[in-house]
Specification:
Blueprint lengths: L12 E2 L1 H9 L5 E4 L15 E2 L5 H8 L6 E4 L5 H11 L5 E4 L2 H7 L11 H4 L5 H4 L5 H9 L2 E5 L5 H11 L3 E5 L24 H12 L4 E5 L8 H5 L4 E4 L4 H14 L3 E7 L2 E7 L8 H4 L12 H4 L4 H19 L8 E6 L4 E6 L12
Parallel strand pairs: 1-5, 2-3, 2-4, 4-5, 6-7, 6-9, 7-8, 9-10
Antiparallel strand pairs: 10-11, 11-12, 12-13
Helix pairs in contact: 8-9, 8-14
This protein binds zinc ion.
Length: about 375
Amino acid sequence: MNGNSEPEFTGEECTPRRVSEWLAGENPPQILDVREDYELEEGIIPGAVHIPLHSVPGEVARRLNPDRPLVVYCAHGVRSLHAIRFLRSQGWKKSLSMSGGFVEWLQENYQVESHDSAPEVAAGERYRSQLRLPEIGLEGQRKLLSSKVLIIGAGGLGCPAATYLAAAGVGDLTLVDDDHVDLSNLPRQVLFHTRDVGEQKAPLAANALRGMNPEIQVREFSRRLNNENVNELITGMNVIVDACDNFETRFIVNDAAARKGIPVIHGAVHKFEGIVTVFHPAQGGPCLRCLHPSPPSAEDCGSCAEVGVLGVLPGLVGIYQSLEALKLIAGFGNPLIGRILALDTLSGDHRKIQLPVDKACGCNHC
Ligand SMILES: [Zn+2]
């Protein structure tokens, strides 16, 4: 058998060596650690989900996928055998117990990580519900906690987008907005209170997010994004959320992000209609200039204040933007690259529109 391929599931056990090779291959198995909390001091196998043996029946189906291969281990390989016999009786046909357990794994000097560094210890309670989704899990949560997102605009789109990114545990958020809170902003800019009228938006929004999730870093930038500061602001970002309300800024961000290969989550609203898409030329998708080669005229894109808007629509679009950012960072689902999600809130129709790369744009050249 090739070391990287799946072992057969006729037997009940596989060796630590085989598990190590399998983990290094293209289709690594899920790993379940069934030891007790006090046994984790020497670390865990990287990526393992920890569920003490007595909690396996109640928790395993919520945290792991029964259709994917699963390796279970304990200290010596006895409890894990009990676990896989139980699991197989419940239909987990692709489960194997690691013989010799974690003790043998350590003796063989295979890779171990500190359990203390895992967010399930420091922040497991906070993120418990999303950690239970196999599509996110510990690995996805780690990616979120170590990611940096720039949110341009702390208005109708930026407030809900930033709220859900902070709540989900994106580790480093930067809010850019040079504006002050106006009373007429409050129906859609839900991070602000009536007492905030006249105050700067970025520090207020940042403080609200810090209160919601003190475990993440929230930065604020209370000046306007322009050609001079854009490169400094976007450097090192994993994702940019374009939640601003003017095409001049959108194009500056688009061009700088395309040059650096950073995806931009685009959201926009007009009356009762909203759109969301991901501009990511580095992954073969189009950019804003593929959609609009040059900024539309001012008459074509009046602001919310001029055209009118019901606050719930930017709320919906901003939340979709946060979802697309989480998908890109944690690596689940199918991001809206090259597709526009168009929401018509009057009819209730949600449509997806293909958005091809404009060959003349130049954003996508290899
Ligand atoms: Zn383009």
